[in-house]
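Onboarding guide, step 5: your first structure request.
Type a short instruction followed by the sequence, for example:

Predict the 3D structure of this protein.
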Amino acid sequence: MLYSEMKRKISSAKTMKRRNKFLLWGFFSDVVLLDQASKYFAEVYLKHRDFPLNSWFSLTLSHNTGCAWSLFQGRTMILGFLGIAVLLLIYYLRNILGIYERPIAFGLLLGGILGNAIDRLCRGLVVDFFNVNLSIYNWPIFNVADAALCMAVFILVFFRPMGRKSKNLNDKELDE
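The system replies with structure tokens like these:
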């Protein structure tokens, strides 16, 4: 490999990492800001009424002192500090986890964790307000942070980073 070609590849890799960091921190901050702003809106405007948008979706203010599906009720502070600990652990293990290879997923994940941790530590509860009521199932009321967490998990489970090959296959096996 020529020196100029090697230099171009290194430059391209640095540009890609810079772009991915921008995406990660952009999604992270957008989720936190949108989550906190929407919760403020819900507290102010939905305090004494529901706001139906159609037959199956409405905005309904709800407070949760637990976590998903109202599990661990009353353990708000423990869950808040646990969220911060998980956030710091993911950041500490960022190179091992490859968070810059999947910036959108990890931006959504970290933003969702921090959005709900802020609520738990500052308000003593999590504000939820999206209410999906299908005729066959009434989904638990959720918020922007919860939606971001679900999208992140979906992306992490079903999509692998671009350019990665399975460790079980080599190039020869891929051609056959």
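Each response can be followed by summary notes, for example: Confidence is low (pLDDT under 50) at residues 166-176.
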